[in-house]
Amino acid sequence: MKLEELIEHLDYKDLINFKNIDITGISYNSKTTKAGDVFICLTGEYTDGHKYAKDAIQNGAVALVVEHLLEVKVPQVVVNSTRHRIADIADAFYSSPSKGINLIGVTGTNGKTTVTHLIQKIMEEDSQKCALIGTLGYKLSSSGEYRDAKHTTPQAPELQATLRMIKDVEKIDNVVMEVSSHALEQNRVGGCIFNGAILTNLTQDHLDYHITMDNYFAAKALLFTGLKHVEGVSESEQPFAVINADDEYSSRFLNAVPEGIRKFTYGVKNNADVIAKDISFSINGAEFTLVENGNSHKVNLHMNGMFSVYNVLAAVTGAIAMGIEITVALKALENVKGVAGRFEVVAHKPLVIVDYAHTPDGLENVLKSAREITPKDAKLICLFGCGGDRDATKRPKMGAIAEKLADKIIITSDNPRSEDPQMIITDIIAGVKSVNTENVIVEADRGIAISLLKTVANNNDVVVIAGKGHENYQILKNETIHFDDREEARKVFEVSVI
User: Are residues 175 and 224 located together in one domain of the fold?
Assistant: First the structure.
C-alpha cells in the first residue's frame, strides 16, 4: 500500500519529508519492526515511542507517525495522538475488515469471557461459523485451540490483521469479541464497525487507570455510542444493544445508545425483555425459567451461580437480537460445561472451585454462588489475593467481602508485580474486622497457601480459590513464573487430570 493511500482519510496535522513510498506493514515496537514498516510512535503510561524511532528506522521502518517532528530523514506524518490514530491506520492498511463481518462486542467488568464463549456456541448450534477474540486469546471455533493474545482486546494492528485473516483466510463472517475499557478509551477498536454491543455489568475495577467510576462508565459507553444506524436497512436488521437491566448503570447505558439502534434488556430483579425466574442451584448446576415475549422456557445448566444465570441471559438476548431461535440458543447453552477458570471445579473432596474473580463484585458473586452449594454442616473457605500495580482501593473491600461471606479465609498473593506482596496483604487486611488466626490465615506465598488447604478443609467443605482463574503464570517483581491455581490444587488434593 502506498503511504498516500494509507493516510488518505487520516486526521493529520502535517507531513514532513513526504514521499509516496510503499508501506508493507505497521509497527509500534522498534524491536519487531521490519523492512517496509510504518513505525507509529505510541505515547503511553510507561514509555514514549518517539525515543525508539531511530531504532525502528535501523530495523527497516520507511516512515513514521509522530506527535512532534523528529530529526530523521524518513517521511513523518504528524498527528495529535498516535495512540488514537493507530487504529485508523490499521483499519486502512487492512481495508476495513469489520465491514464484511457480523462483529459483536461484549463489554463489562465481569462475565465478558463467558458471554463471548456462549455466543460462539449458540451461533455454531445455529449452523453458523463464529470466531472469538478475548482474554484467553482467539479461537476460530468452540472446539478449536486458543491462539495467543497479549491483551483482552488486542492492539489495533493485531486486531485488524486478525479480523482480515478470519474473514479472508478462514471464511468466517461472525466474530464475537471481548472489548475492555482500556481498549475503548485507547481506541484500540477504532475503525471497527460493530453490529451489536452487549453489557454484562459495571462494578469497581481498573480505577488505577480510570480514576473514577464516571470515567470508567464513559469508557465502556463508547462501545454503545459508536453503534451506527445503517441507511437502507430494515429495522429488524439494524445494529443492536443488549443491556443488563439490573445493573446500577443500566439507564445511563440505555440513554447512550444512539437513535435507530435496537435496544434489548435482560435481568432477574427488574422488568426486562428477557427474564430469569424460579432460580435454583445444586452441585450439578443452575435451573431457572426463562421468560421472553410472554413465553416460558425451562433451562437446566451445567454452569453454576447467579452470575452464570446473568451470563446466559446476556448471550440468549444477544442471540434473539441476531434472529436466532431461542430454542436453538438454549439447546446450545444447556450443553456447555463452563469456561476455563470460571467457577471451574478441580477437586470434589473437598469441592475446590477455581475462579477468575478479581474485583469486589466478582468475589461477592462467586462466594454467594459457592454458599448456595455448601452443605449446612460444612465450611466455605476462600483463598484470594489482589494484584499489584492495580486499583488499591478495592483491596480492603475484597477483604471485607471475603470475611463476611466465607467461614474461613486465606489471604495470599495474586500477581504482585512491582509491589511488595506483604503490603498488598496489609491493604486487604484493612478491610477485615477481626484478624482471628482461627478464621483468617495469611500466607504470602500462593503455592504454600494453596497447600495449607489440605489441613484447613474437610472433605465436605467448599473451597474457592479466587483471582487468577485460567492464568498459568504469576507476575513477580523481576520475573514471570509458571503458576496455575488448578494445577496446584490438583497436586494438593491428589486429583489427576483425565
Answer: yes
